Amino acid sequence: MKLALLTDLHANREAVSAVLAHARAEGAERYAFLGDLVGYGADPGWVVDQVREHVDRGAVAVRGNHDAAAVHGPLPSMNADARRVIEWTHGQLDAAQLAFLEHLPMQVEEGDMIFVHANARAPAEWAYINARADAVQSMHACVQRYTFCGHTHIAALYHLSATGKAGEFSPTPGVAIPLSEQRRWLAIPSSAGAPRDGDPATGYALFDASARTITFHRLPYDHAAAAARIRAAGLPERLAERLNHGE
Amino acid sequence: MESERPIQPGSVQIGQVIDGFRLEERTHRGGMATLWRVTRVEGTEDHPDEPPLIMKVPRFLGGDDPATIVGFEVEQMIMPTLAGPHVPRFIAKGDFSRLPYIVMERIDGPSLRPRLDAAPLPIDEIAQIGVKVATALHELHRQHVVHLDVKPSNIMFRPSRASQGGEAVLIDFGLSRHDHLPDLLEEEFELPMGTGPYMSPEQVQFVRGDPRSDLFALGVMLYHLTTAARPFGAPTSVRGLRQRLYRAPVPPRELRAECPAWLQEAILHCLEVDPAQRYQSAAQLAFDLQHPEQVALTERALRVSRSDRTGMVKRWFRAIGMESRGGGGIAEQAAKNPILLAAVDVLGAQPSLLDAVRRTAQRLLDSAPGARLACMTVMRINRIAMDELVEADGSSRHVNLLVQLEHWARPVKQGNAAAGRVTLHVIEASDPARAIVDYARKNQVDHIVIGARSSGGLRRYLGSVSAQVAAEAHCNVTVVRDATPSGG
Prior knowledge:
The complex is a heterodimer of chains A (about 250) and B (about 500).
Chain A: E1 2-6, H1 13-25, E2 30-33, H2 44-56, E3 60-61, H3 65-72, H4 80-92, H5 95-102, E4 107-110, E5 113-116, H6 132-140, E6 146-148, E7 156-161, E8 166-169, E9 176-178, E10 183-188, E11 202-208, E12 213-219, H7 223-232, H8 237-243
Parallel strand pairs in A: 1-2, 2-3, 5-6, 6-10
Antiparallel strand pairs in A: 1-11, 4-5, 7-8, 7-10, 9-12, 11-12
Helix pairs in contact in A: 3-4, 3-5, 7-8
Chain B: E1 17-18, E2 21-29, E3 33-40, E4 53-58, H1 66-78, E5 90-94, E6 101-105, H2 113-117, H3 123-142, E7 145-146, E8 155-157, E9 168-170, E10 177-178, H4 201-204, H5 212-227, H6 238-242, H7 252-255, H8 261-270, H9 282-290, H10 299-302, H11 309-319, H12 330-336, E11 339-343, H13 351-367, E12 372-380, H14 397-416, E13 422-429, H15 432-442, E14 447-451, H16 457-462, H17 465-472, E15 476-480
Parallel strand pairs in B: 11-12, 11-14, 12-13, 14-15
Antiparallel strand pairs in B: 1-2, 2-3, 3-4, 4-6, 5-6, 7-10, 8-9
Helix pairs in contact in B: 3-5, 3-9, 5-8, 15-17
């Protein structure tokens, strides 16, 4: 069973289309959306509809901080640009789309997998997994072998051995990484809508549950078009420009 | 139906069937693992090209020994990614939840371990072993893997029949590192990982992932085979291991007078404390061992005694901070230090084409500081008739060609002679294209530069050597054309 993992889609229609097309071609049978469907980008309605259709067909989706903010108003921690987009996003979504976001679960546990936006230790506090210690805390807070999360926008793979030794790894795109059953794994599949590692290419990961491998993918897409739509919507220029640089 | 219950590694026995493999015979019981000869229960019809098989089952010492467990986990992760004649073919692996194992091709030839007891070996055999092992290591490095436990018992040789076989096969990837996969061992141990006598200085300092570490280990082996002594002893403490950071080995020629200067040069080149001072790729070492007369001799070749105090301090200074250096990936290290081959028809080609080939070769050489350039010309001999090996004036054709080739290469050599980056080769063959392709394959050449005859009567008559080389070579080929307009 191949499971496509998408996180931090951020209302980027061009990028999400590219990822979904690639995942389909790679034989993805299921999808998991790890939160932050909206915010920053110019197509919140389209992205929410896509995710909703996938969920109707059995996909997993969890709530991100931007999704919560689009429903309940900006969080105090958000910067000025993010607030402006959140307020704009709220106005773009209809009642059904807002209700969908409002009812997204904080986390989903399914067999040996857990899906959550920020971390499994305190999901609603939205703390980032930036280092090995954060990943270890998250893995200690749940029992599942595989944690799939997002929020950082940077691809990473952490692992924890039975003896408590943890390691981290920056995945090479396109390489199927075997996930030994001797240890536990936490994967962050980059960001589908707003990569931040200096490469504008969109990213996602494909988890093969039967072969027990994970492959991180990076795909070029028309980021100039996505940036143009942000400008056309009258959203902050900085949000458009950074899509072109993966910042 | 087989049960899915866990099997104790110690309880497996002859006749038992595990995942369709029947255990026929226990062939080896080592400290870390037991090896079984196995066959497929359902027969081999579905696997027509399958070689004879063995199953490796780890022995977990004292319950949960992390070294064995993680090492086996690493081997299970890396072996399926490897291919080619220099590794055993991977067939299957078993879950840790039931019984961890690896089923792989059985290599019938001997390991290098017994030859160690026969040291000192004849110089020819040492060079031959060196070439085979370096070739295997280069293939491994190109597949993004550094072995990190190169030693005689981890090197086997395929049985040779006629001119076939005899390749070195690397086994035991329990300490290896794959560039594109997580390093499961990185955080596991507080002690340096490797085998005492063979461990590179950077491994002693916990650096895992430099392919040049494998060249250090190969240097230790070649030293041992040459002198019957270990260059750094067999230390068991970290303190003992660290000695190799500041203490240079006794030069091989001091222990064995007939060790040629080129071999001492090659061995000590491998044993440099700073990876940047070693051979930069295994292929470059293999190249030198195949062309002893072309090895650029440095102060290493002349050393007659273990370095004095100043030398020690120098070695030690080179060791400081070397962890921070190095860079790129394992395969990239090999690619960054390519072997280039300029195939030059020094007598037949137009001067303007010869210039163009040289300019292209020079550009490629300049673009990679670690690159080496082999300049080659083919001396055409007849397949059947006796050849005129002596020119009309009594001089040797071979020597004449070498003189011409040297003249052609002089402008390139002027900038690079010191490092011995440019070598010259006259090859005698009846089929030049075949000779060039064979030479490139045997020497792990990365890139061939060759001139194309301008279209015209001669080309129609003789056929195009460059076209055949471009079609048949396994590496990159740049075909250089003469810029001057041709009549054809």
